[in-house]
Amino acid sequence: MQEKNINDENDNILTKVINNLKKIIDNLKLTKNLDATINDINSIIQNLDSIVKNNKDPNNNIDKNSYQTETYNNGDKYIGQIINDKAEGNGIYIFRNGDRYEGQFSDDKFNGKGTYYYIDGDKYEGEFKDDKRDGKGLYISKNGCKYEGEYKNDKREGKGIMYYEDGNYQGEFKNDKKDGKGLYYYKNGDREMGDYSNGKKIGKHILLKNNGKIEIKEYI
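Now predict its structure.
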């Protein structure tokens, strides 16, 4: 019996996976006219390459739960580990509209840590639970604004920091909006402390001016 070279087999598996991924992206570009850049393609391939390498055992064998490619009726695609016909472990999910998720899966859903890339240029990096943002995460908008903090059921919920063009808000959030006690730092050095409800200022706020003066403002 001819002895098999395990390293060559592993390289062949990885090559096949990467080639399949290239074909998937090409198909998306042709059918949906998506502007998938070379950098995007390289990013996906490098991420997948890293995932595969991290799932080798000490003997340099690919984990028994090998990577597979699934194409769904709605046009979405999945490349990653599958156990009992469900996404389980690490993988990449590409939506037909161009969005994609790279990270951990459990029970066929986004569960654990991952990164979600939106087709419009926004990006979320953090924790997921049952396909929703849940836990700690960082959301960066294409316009430069970003949020860093806690999420619950796909919404900003708990403590966090929202960065705006004119400064940043540090405090509590509820139902995706500023809600509770918070402190706003303006770029000019002013600081404003007070309560928020449904994204709006309420009650008395203390404004500490950059010149040392203190002002009291009241919002209805």
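Helices lie at 6-32, 38-54.
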